[in-house]
Description:
By secondary structure, this protein is an alpha/beta fold. It is 41% helix and 22% strand.
Amino acid sequence: MGLDEIGPWSEIKLEIVRDYAAEYSKIITQQELPLHHVYIDAFAGAGQHISKTTGKMVLGSPANALLVQPPFLEYHFIDIESSRIEELQRLARDRAKVSVYPGDCNEILLSKVFPRLAWEDYRRGLCLLDPYGLHLDWKVIETAGRMKSLEVFLNFPVADMNRNVLWKDPTRVSPDQAVRMTRFWGNDSWRDVAYSTSSNLFGWHEKTDNDTIAEAFRERLREVACFTHVPAPLAFKNSRDAIIYYLFFASQKPVAEGIVQHIFNKYRTRL
Length: 271
């Protein structure tokens, strides 16, 4: 199959997740109380990509996770594309602790993967939610937070939002696109966040900026999904200096927030 080409911002995101996964596994295996720790990749891709910058092969997040030492005790890779599933199955070959799931991650996470990670069973997990656009259901995010056993990296796809939903004239937005936004956000409150109460000469309410929208979502992660530690997200920009997505991290542990802030700062100068 032809591998996806990724830009330099995606390579940085992969490095961030890789760096944290290594620290996470190291710390959790040093606990006095034995914890069964799991890695979850909900939009796993094929396991490798091609760099647009160099033309070389770049390991994807599943392949990076399998290289982490000490290793996770389970790996769960999900993708909806059959060609990517074939590559993931090849990657997982002869590895008894790796499960590969074809299909919609929103259903698979809630029905098959998250139930394996009950707090009271001493299970813990690091979950990468990296959708290509507005393909994630808020139920997944909220469930992860309320379980208390999961730490999450989350792609907040603001470019898809701006392209399809957050228009200057909201009356022209397709109802189907608005439904996608509501599904991702969890309710219709995004409308109040995205538009100010004052209107312009055309009668439209003024659209708020990307940072305001991202900060409102950060509040939802804390107040609604019940993650206690959500550092400010990292903004990823394209070559035209436009924000294409924010990378969020959410956890229940202050030490996790501190580690991620350190990693974010390490890569901030490259964005």
